Give the backbone structure.
Amino acid sequence: MGHVLIRQLCKSFVERRAKRRTADTDPLVRKGDSLSVLDNIDLEFQDGELVCILGPSGCGKTTLCRIIAGFDYPTSGVLLVDGKEVTGPTPDSIFVFQHSGLLPWMTVWENVKLGVRSLNNKKEMTERIQEYIDIVDLKGFEHLYPSQLSGGMQRRAEIARALVGNPEILFMDEPFAGLDFLTRLRMREEIINMHELIQRTIIFITHDIDEALVMADRVVLFSDRPARVKMDMKLDFPHPRDFHRDPNLENLRRRVYSDLGVHYAL
Ligand SMILES: Nc1ncnc2c1ncn2[C@@H]1O[C@H](COP(=O)(O)OP(=O)(O)OP(=O)(O)O)[C@@H](O)[C@H]1O
Ligand SMILES: [Mg+2]
C-alpha cells in the first residue's frame, strides 16, 4: 500500500485579509486575492517508491505533501491514495520535519514508544520498538535523552518514531536541512538502507539535487510557483550510486542542473 495518484490537481490560497506590502515593489495583497500554488499536477507514485521532490523555495512542495497527507485539500483535481479519496489526516501518513520533534524529557525509547499505534500486547510492543530502533541503527542508545544525541541520531530517532506506527506513506520535509555535510551524506545512505528494509512509500523533499539523484527511485522537479511538473523521472540506477563512475548518472545530473539554469561549478 502507499500508492498515490494525482490528476490535474490545482491549489490556490485565498487571502483572508489585506496585507501590508513588505517592499515598494511587492504587489498589494487584498482580501479575497487568490494565490495559485499548484497548477495542473499529474503524478503517480508507486507503492514502496522513494520519491524525491525538488523545486525552488516557495513553489508548493510542502503544500502538495500536506494535501496528500490530508492536512489540506486541493482546489480542484483528483487525489487518490490507495484508490481512495483523501478526506483528512490519518496515522497512515506521517511527517518528519526539518526541526527535531523529539520530546526532550523522554529517552529515545520513550520517544519511539509514542509512535506505536494500538498494540495491547506488551511483548509485541517492546519487540516492535526495538525492531525500529535497530533499523535506524540506534541500538545501545535507547536510554539516552535527545540532548545526549548528535543531530543525525536525533533525526534517526524521529524516523524510528514515525515508522513504528507502520504508516503507508512517510513524508520527509527537508529532514537533513540542519545537519552538517558529512552527517548528511551518512543519513542519505541510511535512508536508502532503511527504505530497502521497510519497502514503504517515502516522499522526500530536498533542495539538494545530488541528494535526490543518489537516493530516489523517482525524482520530481517542480517549476517556480505556481508549481508545474517540469520533470518526473524514474531512476533505475543501482545503489550505491556514484556520479564519477556512472556517466549516465552524471549526464542526468548535468541535465537537471541545466534545467534549473545552472551550467557552471558542476
Ligand atoms: N496556509 C497558507 N495560506 C496562504 N498561503 C500559503 C499557505 N501555505 C503556503 N502558502 C503559500 O504557498 C506557497 C508555497 O508554499 P510551500 O510551503 O508549499 O512552498 P515550498 O515549495 O515548500 O517552499 P520551501 O522550499 O521554502 O519550503 C508560498 O507562497 C506560501 O506563502
Ligand atoms: Mg517547504
Remarks:
- The chain has a mean pLDDT of 90.
- Residues 8 and 179 are 36 Å apart (CA to CA).
- The longest helix spans residues 181-198.
